[in-house]
Amino acid sequence: MRLMCGILAGQKFDSVLIGDESLSKRPMKRVIEPLALMNAKIDSIENHAPLTIHGKNPLTAHAFEPKIASAQLKSCLLLAGLNASGETSVLEKTQTRDHTERMLQYLGVNLQETKTANGTLISVSGKEVLTAKDLNVPSDVFIGGVFSRRGGLFEKFGNNSEKRRSESVKDGDYRSFTKFRRRHRSFE
Ligand SMILES: O=C(O)C1=C[C@@H](OP(=O)(O)O)[C@@H](O)[C@H](O)C1
C-alpha cells in the first residue's frame, strides 16, 4: 500500500486504497507526510487506511533524507518521482532492500546511485518512459526473516523495522511457514 501511494499520487485520477483489518492498522504517516512535500494530497483516517489519493495534482521533485531506514518509503518516493517534474532523490543512510531500484533500472529508468560520505544518494527524473518487460516474482523475500532471525542475517540492516519484526517472530511461525510452503510450491 505504501508503494501504491507513490504511484497513484501522480496520476490523473483519484484513488481509494482499502486494506484488511491488519493492513488498516499499519501506519501510513511515513509516506503521507513526505509525499505531501511533493504536493500529493492524501486523506486518511488518522494516518491509516482507507486512503483517498487525490490525483490531478502535478507532483514536484524533492530531495529526501528519510529519518527511518525503510525500503517501502524509499520505493514510494522513487515511484512518485517518476511522475514529478525535476529530479527526486532519496539519501539512504542505512541500506535497505533494493528491489525497486533494480526493477526500475531493468525497465529502462535512468536511476542513479551515488555513494556519498553520508550514504547512497538514489535519484530519478520525472516523466520517464518505462519499457514493458517480463518479470518473474518468485515470492516475498521477507518470509526468509523467519529463518534469518536465528542466523542473525538482519544485523547488517541495522536497527530498522525489518530487524525488529524478525526479532518478534515466534517459533509457531515456523509451523505457519511450513503451511505457506505447501500452498506455494514454487517458493524458494
Ligand atoms: O518500511 C519498510 O520497508 C517495511 C516496513 C514494515 O512494515 P510495518 O512497519 O507496517 O510493519 C515491513 O513490511 C517490512 O519490515 C518493511
Number of strands: 9
Cofactors, ions, other ligands: shikimate-3-phosphate
- Uncertain stretches: 154-159, 166-172
Largest sheet: 4 strands, mixed
The helix/strand order is HEHEEEEHEEHEEHHH
**Quaternary organisation:** single chain
**Count of individual helical segments:** 7
Q: Tell me the Rg in angstroms.
A: 17 Å
Could you estimate the helical fraction of the residues in percent?
Answer: 25-40%
InterPro entries: Enolpyruvate_Tfrase_dom, Enolpyruvate_Tfrase_sf, RNA3'P_cycl/enolpyr_Trfase_a/b
Organism: Biomphalaria pfeifferi (Bloodfluke planorb)
Keywords: Transferase
GO biological process, one term: chorismate biosynthetic process
Structure description:
The chain is α/β, with parallel strands linked by helices and 188 residues long. The protein is built from 7 helices and 9 strands. The chain has helices at 2-8, 29-36, 71-81, 99-106, 145-151, 161-167, 172-183, and strands at residues 15-17, 41-45, 48-54, 59-60, 63-64, 84-85, 87-92, 112-116, 119-125. Helix 1 runs parallel beside helix 3 (71-81) and helix 5 crosses helix 6. It is globular. Mean pLDDT is 85; it is low at 154-159 and 166-172. This is 3-phosphoshikimate 1-carboxyvinyltransferase.
What is the topological layout?
Elements lengths: L1 H7 L6 E3 L11 H8 L4 E5 L2 E7 L4 E2 L2 E2 L6 H11 L2 E2 L1 E6 L6 H8 L5 E5 L2 E7 L19 H7 L9 H7 L4 H12 L5
Parallel strand pairs: 4-6, 5-7
Antiparallel strand pairs: 1-3, 2-3, 7-9, 8-9
Shikimate-3-phosphate binds next to helix 3 and helix 6.
